[in-house]
Amino acid sequence: MANNLTSNPWNLDTASTTDLHPVGPVFIGQIEFYDYTSDTDTCTLTDRNGVVVWKGNGTSDLQTVRSGMIGWTLGLKLTTLSAGKVLVYIK
User: Fold this and answer.
1) Residue ranges per domain, the chain?
2) DSSP states of 17-80 as a string?
3) Nearest one of 44, 20, 32 to 89, comparing CA atoms
4) Model pTM score
5) pLDDT (tens digit, 9 = 90+) per residue, 17-31?
6) Cα–Cα distance, 65 to 24 (Å, whole number)
């Protein structure tokens, strides 16, 4: 499967250095890290300049990890995804 940016939330399952929102800023309501397999699994999302927007770490009970409100960011990249999927809620 490939990253799906055609709906809200964006459903991401492939890490890349490509900016997912290359035109202007984007408002992120929340990010969720789910469907991972170990408490050592991680995901990292950065802005287009490489500044970390959010880092998700798996938990031992394998429950969905939520970010809370993120706000405005200039671009977005899923730079690390060891396992699982990421939902990005755009406002």
Assistant:
1) 10-90
2) SS-SS-SSEEEEEEEEEES-SSTT-EEEEE-TTS-EEEEEE--TT-PPEE----EEEE--EEEE
3) 32
4) 0.95
5) 999 998 889 999 999
6) 27
Strand-pairing partners, residue 56, are 43
Number of residues that this document lists for the chain? 91
Tokens of 56: 């998700």
Q: Could you say which DSSP state residue 86 is in? A: E
In sequence order, which residues have a C-beta less than 8 Å from that of residue 40 and are 6 or more positions away? 58, 82
**Biggest alpha carbon distance in the chain?**
38
pLDDT digits (tens, 9 = 90+) for 45-54: 999 999 999 9
